[in-house]
């Protein structure tokens, strides 16, 4: 094969089906790191699998592969500000054996530039459940919002005036709003509207968790927590 044929082969588009997501790139990009799994795969060191359309098939996370491919193209790791799947991406980098990417993920740069910080809002729902009822009945439910973003709390105070609530200052200068007690249907309606309002202010859900507690033989308390985050610029004093 002469140099012209080799150059044409290296730049010919190649389509991959990664977990059901299709990506088109060049052979030279896939072989940027010869010691990686993709480098070996497209060097012919082990058999490849094709889907029904003839595309190369890899049974891995198709969504995260976009970051793998972008790294192969630029040798730079670029992630969105609200990216929360670093551990999963690290596993993908380990699978593809791309050592420079593994090093980037093990020694990451700060998530935000120096003049950016992260604002956090915590929303929790507390429900007391009675085992005497069949099905289990909600006795008391209340919602609590905790954040240092006072403008957000003022907006909630002004936009949710019909709800029974009280405000409390906490030791770390955060402020909490507690709604309730209210019945289950009121809590669901309020929670949906609160979450919608918070996300319209530019916050995204970072994580959720559930905590179960048994207080008495006939009662359980279930707490649901949601954490919302958004980047914000630091203001000089």
TrEMBL record:
Q: Which Pfam families match?
A: BTB_2
Domain BTB, residue spans? 12-113
> Which InterPro entries does the protein's record reference?
BTB/POZ_dom, SKP1/BTB/POZ_sf, T1-type_BTB
Gene3D superfamilies named in the record: Potassium Channel Kv1.1, Chain A
| Domain of life of the source | Eukaryota
Query: Which Gene Ontology BP terms does the record give?
Result: protein homooligomerization
Q: Which SUPFAM superfamilies match?
A: POZ domain
Name of the protein this chain belongs to: BTB/POZ domain-containing protein KCTD6
């Amino acid at each position: 094969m002469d140099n012209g044929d080799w150059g044409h082969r290296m730049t010919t588009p190649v389509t991959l089906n990664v977990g059901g997501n299709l990506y088109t790139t060049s052979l030279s990009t896939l072989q940027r790191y010869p010691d990686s799994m993709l480098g070996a795969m497209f060097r012919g060191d082990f058999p490849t699998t094709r889907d029904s359309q003839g595309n190369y098939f890899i049974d891995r996370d198709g969504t995260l592969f976009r970051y793998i491919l972008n790294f192969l193209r630029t040798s730079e790791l670029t992630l969105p500000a609200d990216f929360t799947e670093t551990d999963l991406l690290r596993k993908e980098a380990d699978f593809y054996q791309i050592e420079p990417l593994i090093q980037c993920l093990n020694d990451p740069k700060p998530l935000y530039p120096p003049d950016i910080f992260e604002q956090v809002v915590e929303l929790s729902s507390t429900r007391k459940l009675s085992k005497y009822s069949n099905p289990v009945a909600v006795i008391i439910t209340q919602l609590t919002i905790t954040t240092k973003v006072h403008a957000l709390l003022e907006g909630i105070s002004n936009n949710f005036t019909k709800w029974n609530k009280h405000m409390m200052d906490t030791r770390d200068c955060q402020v909490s709003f507690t709604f309730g007690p209210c019945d289950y249907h009121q809590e669901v309606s309020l929670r949906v509207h609160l979450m919608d309002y918070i996300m319209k202010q530019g916050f995204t859900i970072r994580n959720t968790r559930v905590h179960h507690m048994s207080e008495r033989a006939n009662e359980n308390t279930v707490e649901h927590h949601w954490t919302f985050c958004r980047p914000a610029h630091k203001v000089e004093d």
